[in-house]
Amino acid sequence: MVAAAALSGCIPATPRPEAPPPVRHTPQPLPPTPRPVLGSDWRDWPLTPGDWRYQRTAQGSGAAFGTEGVTRLSLTCDPRTRQVRLSRPASIAGSVTIRTSSTTKVLAAQAVATGAEMVLTANDPLLDAMAFSRGRFTMEQQGQVPLVIPAYAEIGRVIEDCRG
Q1: CA–CA dist 148, 74 (Å, integer)
Q2: Strand partners of residue 119
Q3: Residues 31-69 pLDDT 10s
Q4: Which helix (H) or strand (E) holds 150?
Q5: What mean pLDDT comes out for the span 69-74?
Q6: Neighbours of 97 (CB within 10 A)
Q7: How many whole angstroms from its chain centre is CA 132?
Q8: How far apart are CA 42 and CA 103, in angstroms?
């Protein structure tokens, strides 16, 4: 036994594993904030970016809403037929719901070369509802991002041009 004890002193001790170096966290950029889910009340939805531009032409008048180079919605007046055309580029034919502070109406959109178009007579009450909506109105269509459009004076100018 004495010999075993003496020999055990000759065995090198098992080295302890070294502690890993401290982990240093490098700040990483945060992922982009996801687009907020639209709440149930459309009056709280953020406005679609853009502004209205009015133009009078030999064929009538029109107003376009959008940003530089990107039109999201246009209204054009044909004074000969007293009709107002609402056009949404890159849209499709089908039902379009327009909500204002005073009314909600579903319109049939027809496919045209530039997107989808809805035609209203100049005295349609929906046009007045859009022009005088409290700050905004929406245009919603299945499969498309809803438009939340400010109710600016350009809408009323087109309507009045058509009612002449």
Answers
A1: 13
A2: 85
A3: 443 444 567 888 889 999 999 999 998 889 999 999 988
A4: strand 147-150
A5: 92
A6: 15
A7: 22
A8: 13
Going by their DSSP bridges, the two strands 51-57 and 60-67 should be labelled as: antiparallel
- Residue 35, classified by CB atoms within 10 Å of its CB into exposed (0-12), middle (13-18) or buried (19+), is exposed
* Length of the chain in terms of residues written: 164
Residue in 76, 35, 36 with CA at minimum distance from that of residue 53: 76
Cα first-last separation, the chain: 120
Q: List, in sequence order, every residue forming a beta bridge with 75; answer none if it has no partner.
A: 63, 86
C-alpha atoms less than 13 angstroms from C-alpha of 46 in its C-beta half-sphere: 8
Residue 61: which residues within 8 A CB-CB, separation 6 or more? 54, 55, 76, 77, 157, 158, 161, 162
> Which pLDDT value is given to residue 144?
87
Return d(Cα 77, Cα 46) in angstroms, integer. 28
